[in-house]
Write a structure and sequence with these properties.
Structural class: alpha+beta
Protein name: Type II secretion system protein GspN
Radius of gyration: 31 Å
Number of helices: 10
Keywords: Membrane, Transmembrane, Transmembrane helix
InterPro entries: T2SS_GspN_Lepto (IPR030925)
Number of strands: 18
Organism: Sorangium atrum
Strand order of the largest sheet: 1-2-3-4-5-6-7-8-11-12-13-14-15-16
Helix content: 10-25%
Strand content: 35-45%
Order of helices and strands: HHEEHHEEEEHEEEEEEEEHHHHEEHEE
Length: about 425
């Protein structure tokens, strides 16, 4: 019996050795250059449906193997057309005042997202229970992004970590805001996606950005004035996902120059970039920053002065977004791949604590301390919400009749002899 097993093992060793050599040399001699060209060609083919002016482009300098089930890439560049994610086009909403007429004179330019190095591989152990999970890592924007995501309909948890990403290197972000932004971002996302669908996901998101600032003293507003650096300090954001709705439970920053607050939700969709945002963001420049120099006083308005700042005078949207508490309110809504920014001077439903369908406040404080009606906001109404119509001034009193003439003073006689004085 033993001799028979040895004989079978001896004959089985030859095909096993052959398969081992085939796999080894196939792995070592695999034409990754041709695979790189195929990936770029397939990406371009899928983008052709969007049209020449809207198509994205992918460039890869080097592609190689990573362990036995993965690939490694270096020098990856995703080139976004003008208007994608707000890049290269004239900004709207909160960014409008930062570009002004300069956007009319400059041609739209594409944005480039650069990834220095990245690798991804299919995990082997989950395959034994019928699940496809991909782990990835990337060096991008001066920091690192890593995580594990499920593939197909196998389901499973999503885990993504972001560490030390430099906001100044995130080009599309600065172009969406319309102003340079700096700081260091870290984030942690944990989601449980049943059947691999994000519209049913549950989990949590934590974001922390330190030493955040906007403006650099060089980028000009309206093409004429450069906004001095405004320090936002530490920005914190927390959100909880339940049944595909990511609700923001905390969004705040209290810097020495700029304060920010916000709330809202994101309805997750398939694919993820089709998710729709419904966020309300409010920010305010502190009195210390507005009094920093003659430039900030003229640009933002001096504290206690009835003269509005140049921002409100030059940009009607900034004026309409001004609230009674001095904050500028904005409604960020629409798909994540191309969000919209609309002025919203009223409190958000979450901040008001009201029930859906209640009428929002539509008044704000104009420079000088006078409450003036704003009329309907440009922001899209939320579920069951209707904006109040603008308040109208009272109609003028009707003209007096002849019966009231005895109570009116007599008309003065003509001057310089023109005509004949009336006969009493």
């Amino acid at each position: 019996m033993k001799a028979r097993l040895i004989k079978i093992a001896r004959w089985a060793a030859y095909p096993l050795f052959y398969l081992f050599c085939l796999g080894l040399f196939g792995y070592l001699t695999f034409p990754y250059d041709r695979l790189k060209d195929r990936l770029i060609a397939e990406f371009d083919r899928t983008q052709q449906k969007r049209g020449p002016s809207q198509a994205q482009r992918l460039e890869i300098d080097e592609l190689d193997s990573y362990w036995f089930t993965g690939v490694e890439m270096k020098g990856v560049r995703l080139i976004l057309p003008p208007g994608e994610l707000g890049s290269g086009s004239r900004p709207s909403g909160a960014a409008a005042f930062a570009s002004g007429d300069a956007a009319k004179d400059s041609a739209p330019k594409p944005s480039v997202i650069e990834i220095d190095e990245a690798h991804a591989r299919l995990k082997i152990l989950p395959l034994l229970i019928g699940r496809m999970r991909v782990s990835f890592w990337a060096s991008v924007f001066g920091g690192e992004i890593e995580g594990v995501v499920p593939m197909g309909r196998s389901g499973g948890d999503v885990h993504v970590e972001v560490a030390n990403v430099e906001l100044a290197k995130v080009g599309p972000l600065g172009e969406i805001l319309g102003l340079p932004i700096a700081g260091t971002l870290s984030a942690n996302l944990d989601l449980s996606a049943p059947e691999g669908k994000f519209n049913k996901a549950n989990g949590a998101l934590e974001v922390s950005a330190k030493e955040v600032s906007v403006g650099d003293g060089k980028t000009k507003i309206q093409g004429l004035i450069a906004l001095p650096e405004a320090k936002l300090g530490e920005l914190l954001l927390s959100a909880e996902a339940k049944d595909g709705v990511l609700k923001v439970t905390k969004m705040s920053a209290n810097g020495q120059d700029l304060e920010l607050d916000g709330d809202g939700k994101v309805n997750m969709r398939e694919p993820w970039n089709n998710s729709t945002a419904d966020l309300y963001v409010r920010f305010k420049f502190t009195d210390a920053y507005r009094s920093k120099s003659d430039l900030t006083k003229s640009l933002l308005g001096a504290p206690g002065s009835s003269v509005p700042g140049l921002i409100e005078m030059q940009q009607p949207k900034m004026k309409r977004s001004k609230r009674a508490d001095g904050f500028y309110g904005w409604h960020v809504h629409g798909p994540l791949k191309k969000p919209r920014f609309d002025p919203h001077a009223a409190e958000s439903p979450a901040a008001r604590g009201r029930t859906p369908g209640a009428s929002p406040a539509t008044t704000t404080r104009k420079p000088g301390g006078i409450n003036m009606p704003l009329g309907a906001s440009e922001a899209a109404p939320r579920d069951g919400e209707e904006h109040e119509p603008p308040m109208m001034p009272p109609p003028p009193p009707p003209p007096s009749t002849e019966d009231e003439s005895p109570t009116r003073p007599p008309s003065p006689p003509p001057v310089d002899g023109e005509g004949t004085p009336p006969v009493e």
